[in-house]
Specification:
Belongs to the FPP/GGPP synthase family. Keywords: Magnesium, Metal-binding, Transferase. This is Polyprenyl synthetase. InterPro entries: Isoprenoid_synthase_dom_sf, Polyprenyl_synt, Polyprenyl_synt_CS. GO terms for molecular function: metal ion binding; prenyltransferase activity. The chain is mostly helical. The chain has 2 domains: 1-120, Farnesyl Diphosphate Synthase (Orthogonal Bundle), CATH 1.10.600; 123-322, Farnesyl Diphosphate Synthase. Helix content is 74%, strand content 1%. The chain has helices at 4-16, 25-36, 42-52, 62-83, 94-97, 100-118, 126-150, 158-183, 188-215, 218-221, 227-230, 236-244, 247-257, 263-276, 279-300, 305-319, and strands at residues 87-88, 91-92. Strand 1 and strand 2 (91-92) form a beta hairpin. The longest helix is centred in the middle third of the chain and has 28 residues, at 188-215. It is globular, with a radius of gyration of 20 Å. It starts with a helix and ends with a helix. 40% of the residues are buried.
């Protein structure tokens, strides 16, 4: 069984040595740039670990695993453009390094490249693989649309938010795990269980992101703490604060949400309100809830425990992350 670190090395080497033999170079340079920025490579690692539950040669599906990473980075490229974000992983975003038109076109090409790389899988499995990939891609777009619509609403419910992050974030982790099982010719029941496990770990992962944006260590988290507060982003934290606040607290919350200057005071004030409402405890309990559900689904996969050890260790690391 391969460890997650060994698989990360495989993925990074594969991505670093991908050939781009087409022209014009100006179209492919931003793609190479985006993929060179690194990252945790969670999605390909989850696919390879899931495949490795059933087969010992995960290097055989590196093309499909890196297709998911290409697709994921395509979504980030377009997210950055929509958000007008200046940085990604500490480096200039594509629309800043080049321009908006090139970001759109290179992003579109990344999507096509993701499908091209995915199509290199075992041909008898291609219809099932592409059906799952396409369904996932559509759901992610739906999640992004909900996220944008939530920006202008103050009545977003927790249930709506959970469904949005399921679509925007969770389904790609679920797809990665199920696809690994499919490519390993695993029983359908086990592939479906791994999808469910990925879905739950994805929910826990995004809620943890919300939590760390408020309570993380900026030196470890890799970005300024309180960014979601400054931008009034509808997160699990804010949605529950709006729901649980009494009249006076809601007035205070809305006052600070309307502020567009003095970011540091705004972050401190809203964090104090979160603390009074014990939003931190609520978020941690919800993270643990979804993580426990993911473990239940993994437990149900019909394999000896020792074969699940590397995947289980990786999921544990995801929960304990600080960034």
């Amino acid at each position: 069984m391969y460890t997650a670190n060994e698989l990360l090395g495989m993925v990074n080497h594969y991505i670093d040595t991908l050939p781009y033999n087409r022209k014009p170079e100006s179209l492919y340079a931003p793609i190479r740039y985006v993929l060179s920025l690194g990252g945790k490579r969670i999605r390909p690692i989850l696919m390879l670990l899931s495949y490795n539950l059933f087969k010992d040669n995960p290097e055989q599906i590196l093309s499909s695993a890196c297709a998911l990473e290409t697709y994921h980075n395509y979504t980030l490229l377009h997210d950055d453009l929509m958000d007008k974000a200046p940085l990604r992983r500490g480096k200039p975003t594509v629309h800043c390094q080049w321009n908006e038109n090139m970001a759109i076109l290179s992003g579109d090409s990344m999507l096509v490249l993701a499908y091209e790389r995915m199509a290199q899988c075992e041909q008898q499995l291609l219809p099932e693989v592409l059906e799952l990939f396409t369904q996932t891609a559509l759901e992610i777009g739906e999640g992004q649309q909900y996220d944008m619509e939530f920006e202008t609403r103050n009545d977003v419910t927790e249930q709506e938010y959970i469904e949005m992050i399921r679509l925007k974030t969770s389904v790609l982790l679920a797809c990665a795990m199920k696809m690994g099982a499919i490519l390993a010719h695993a029983p359908k029941e086990d592939a479906d269980l791994l999808y469910k496990a990925g879905e739950q770990i994805g929910l826990a992962f995004q809620l943890q992101d919300d939590y760390l944006d408020v309570y993380g260590d900026s030196k470890v988290f890799g970005k300024k703490i309180g960014g979601d507060i400054v931008s009034n982003k509808k997160t699990y934290m804010l949605i529950n604060a709006l729901h649980l606040a009494d009249e006076e607290q809601r007035l205070q919350l809305n006052k600070w949400l309307s502020k567009t200057n003095d970011d540091n005071r705004k972050i401190r004030a809203i964090t104090r309100l979160y603390n009074k409402l014990e939003i931190d405890k609520l978020a941690k309990a919800k993270i643990d809830y979804y993580f426990d559900l993911s473990k239940d689904y993994l437990n149900a996969v019909y394999l000896p425990e020792k074969q699940k050890m590397q995947l289980r260790n990786y999921l544990d690391r995801m929960l304990k992350r600080k960034r």
